[in-house]
Amino acid sequence: MKPSAILDDARAILDDTIQLRRRVHRHPELGLVLPRTQATVLEALAGLPLDVRTGQRTTSVVARLAGARPGPTILLRADMDALPMAEETGLPFASEVAGAMHACGHDAHTAMLVGAARLLAARRESLAGNVVFMFQPGEEGYHGARVMLEEGLLDGTPPPTAAFALHVTHRLTAGAIAARPGPAMASGDTLQVVVLGRGGHASAPHDCLDPIPIACEIVQAFQTLVTRQVNVFDPAVVTVAKIEAGTTRNVIPDTASLLGTIRTVSEATRERVLEGVRRVAEGVAAAHGAEVAVELIRGYPVTVNDADFAGFVLDTARELLGSEAAHATSHPIMASEDFSYVLQRVRGAIANLSTRPANGPAFPNHSPRMLLNESALAAGIAMHVAVALRFLEGEAGSP
Ligand code: NI
Predict the structure, then answer these.
(1) Looking at the chain, which runs of residues are DSSP E strands?
(2) Which of the residues in the chain have pLDDT under 70?
(3) Ligand 1: distance of its center to the CA of 167 in Å?
């Protein structure tokens, strides 16, 4: 299959893809239950030669395309959920749901994967192997991919031995692809610390146990933990993003609480920092005679791209889109992604597709003014198709 033919086919369905993306964009849904989005996807896939299953605990859709000839199985993934925020783009197809917006491009991911399903289904007769299309709810913190794994995402014969996903970015020229071997995105865990002091009159701290300076010291000590106990080449970020204590100027409160996030790019450093955060909070509080309640809530694991597969994805991008459109990313980004759960089980990679607007400012993902360059969606569809075809055909360089 010629790369130019794949790109032509993707461009031929670009208008449909844009219409589908806009339809999803108008009606954003949050979390694990996205009935309207699921119905839209099912409608868009209807009539294709796919074995379609839906989730029990979520509104996921898993569609399996069986090639005419036997061969391996590759999984392609799109996330479908939106964010709890008000849209400020002013687009004619802006969100019609108050307090919800597709500001992370999942509307585009969904539409592109439908497009890829259409193009791959049309090639079914020449396909040696299978493609699993994974449409997942609950990427924005709800562990949707984990639920889908628990519900048998990887069942089926033969099970997927490769997995690929795209995520939009504003960082490159529109239509460009970026990926890196190894850790691509961080783990994202939550820290909650409550310093348990003893309140009283602000003029008589010696009669109280003031939790506020202790909380401040804990925040500082976290930063020392990171810079003195974490290898700079295997980094971590600890951010206390919220501090809460007190009611007024002359009352020492009983408690002070901290809320923040812990990011790492290796599971070893993740464990080290989680353990360290607890130790530091308990130790600093103990030094001042206070108690502390520490809660560490595990979020997504580190997203680790298989080195060979990431190289294969970049080779595919070079062949399909030209070498200037294929970028090896120099370092991981500290955002997190629940495709990490899939990549713990199946080797593969997540890559970025740039959807940077041609003109005007490029607002990042999660901005209420985030805009997508829809013409770049053709490159995304073509990447899904080309990665799948090259993998199934076992082309030189495919892992
Ligand atoms: Ni996202």
Answers:
(1) 51-54, 61-66, 69-79, 128-136, 160-169, 177-179, 182-185, 187-196, 200-201, 236-245, 251-252, 255-264, 291-297, 303-305, 326-328, 348-354
(2) 1, 395-397
(3) 7
pTM beyond 0.85: the answer is yes
The separation between the first and the last C-alpha atoms of the chain, rounded to the nearest angstrom, is 18
Question: What pLDDT sits at residue 360?
Answer: 83
- Each residue of 48-70: pLDDT tens digit? 999 999 999 999 999 999 999 99
Domains of the chain: 3-184+302-392 (3.40.630.10), 187-300 (3.30.70.360)
- As annotated, the active-site residues are 300, 374
- Other CB atoms within 10 A of residue 177 CB: 24
**Pseudo-torsion of CA 57, 63, 69, 72, nearest 10°?**
-50
- Residues near ion ligand 1 (CB < 5 Å) are 104
**Cα 399 to middle of ligand 1, angstroms:** 26
